[in-house]
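User:
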Amino acid sequence: MKNLEKDWRYWVELTNKMKNGAKSLPPRGYNESSSDYEARVRAANNSGAKVLPRGDNEGSSDFEARIKAVYNTDTIILPRGDNEGSSDFEARIKAVYNTDTIILPRGDNEGSSDFEARLRAAHNTDTLILPRGDNEGSSDFEARLRAAYNSNTIIPPKGSNESSSEFEARVRATYNSNTIIPPKGSNENSSEFEARVRAAYN
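Assistant: Predicted structure:
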């Protein structure tokens, strides 16, 4: 999975493109047999969601489970991720039934409890929730998940240049302003960052 601190914009742009783009069927993937592709075509004809090709980490049973799930949701289900066990993938598929937003696979920094907490949070929001970031301690990640319950805006993970108090201030500002606020930049001092966060309220 891409580095979340540096590439969170990638996930935002990708998911927006996938949610808002035309419902076109991606061509047959290099992991797909002819029967896999035919199953995906049938699923696409019976779902409002774009059905993605069989992924690098998907065994036959994983792919079949995702195809079956597509019949019951209009939300895109991403293929099984690098860090997902079968039970993780199954839990993510079930979680998709309770939200209108894409749920990203288990992240590089997520333990089982982190991943489960993010799935629970996804039940209460239609906003993309990014996996636990490289610089997020347990309390940082928990704070971001709590804010996500009632936020309509994506909250990027804690950045490497942010103290816990600066991260908390950014999370609060995002929650109250419904504006995506990027993490503190490497060239920003504390006063500049504080000014940017305050400006989000306006």
